[in-house]
Design goal:
Layout: H1 2-14, E1 15-24, E2 27-36, H2 38-46, E3 55-60, E4 65-71, E5 77-84, E6 87-88, E7 106-110, E8 115-116, E9 124-126, H3 132-136, E10 145-147, E11 156-157, H4 160-175, E12 181-186, H5 192-197, H6 204-220, E13 226-229, E14 233-235, E15 244-246
Parallel strand pairs: 3-12, 10-11
Antiparallel strand pairs: 1-2, 3-4, 4-5, 6-11, 7-12, 8-9, 9-10, 13-14, 13-15
GO biological process, one term: regulation of cell shape
Organism: Devosia insulae DS-56
Keywords: Cell shape, Cell wall biogenesis/degradation, Peptidoglycan synthesis, Transferase
Length: about 250
């Protein structure tokens, strides 16, 4: 029995296989999509990584990029691969309310309960919007995902083959003991030059706040602890100050 279970687990790692049910009119159509992950696992190994390593995700709207980072033996994270974002909704700037068709920006955490292996977009995981920061500002919305396909109503779509890889890494990290995967979403690469160019934008103060967290990761190579403190993101020890709520994944 133990051997049989082990074979099934290995098969799940090497083959992303899911039966999706999609309602069309009054009929359900089941579609099976199969992705062989053998080559992907080999590419991870060649880069010095393995499924189960701790993971981190960064998203950049303007550049239409999703970055997948993995932790090395020294504790720092290194970029494994970036993926094109096929589509996101709205413009640069945060999501404010349900139905505004805007994709969120900010600091989010993904736990195993946020994974959806039965998504109609092949695979998906929920960003966890609204987080504590969003709630402090009265922002509303639901079902904001990273998923496959190439359509978006507030989500980040990265195509089915690409989400198969990202999902596999996030899922394996969570199953191997990572309590939550940090997903940091930015309007653009937060360089001083890029931010200065947006100095007159309504969202410039918010983006400067995001840049503080961006800079900490760039310097330390590890995602900082993030808290929401009276409608402002704070980091590290400051994230645990008075009137602060730590940004957390779903329990």
């Amino acid at each position: 029995m133990a051997i049989a279970i082990g074979v099934l687990l290995l098969a799940g790692v090497l083959v992303g296989r899911f039966v999706l049910t999609e309602r069309t009119g009054d009929r359900d159509i089941a579609t099976e999509r199969v992705y062989d992950r053998t080559q992907f696992v080999a590419e991870l190994t060649a880069a010095g990584f393995a499924l189960g390593d701790r993971a981190h995700v960064r998203i950049f709207k303007r550049e239409h990029k999703l970055e997948l980072w993995l932790q090395r033996a020294d504790g720092r994270y290194a970029l494994f691969r970036d993926y094109d974002i096929c589509r996101f909704s709205g413009e640069l700037g945060p999501k404010l309310k349900e139905g505004d068709r805007q994709s969120p920006e900010g600091f989010y955490r993904v736990a195993e309960s946020q994974l959806n292996p039965n998504s109609r977009h092949h695979l998906s995981f929920n960003l966890g919007f609204p987080n504590a920061f969003d709630r402090q500002l009265g922002r509303t919305g639901s079902a904001l995902m990273v998923h496959g396909g190439c359509s978006s109503v507030g989500c980040y779509a990265i195509t089915d083959p690409n989400v198969d890889e990202v999902y596999a890494v996030v899922e394996a990290a969570l199953k191997h003991g990572q309590d939550a995967v940090d997903v940091h979403v930015f309007p653009f690469r937060m360089t001083a030059t890029a931010l200065a160019a947006e100095g007159g934008n309504t969202w410039a103060p918010f983006w400067r706040n995001l840049k503080a967290g961006y800079d900490l990761f760039e310097a330390a190579g590890t995602p900082p602890k993030v808290g929401a403190c009276r409608g402002e993101y704070r980091f590290g020890a400051d994230a645990e100050g008075p009137k602060c709520a730590v940004i957390a994944a779903w329990s």
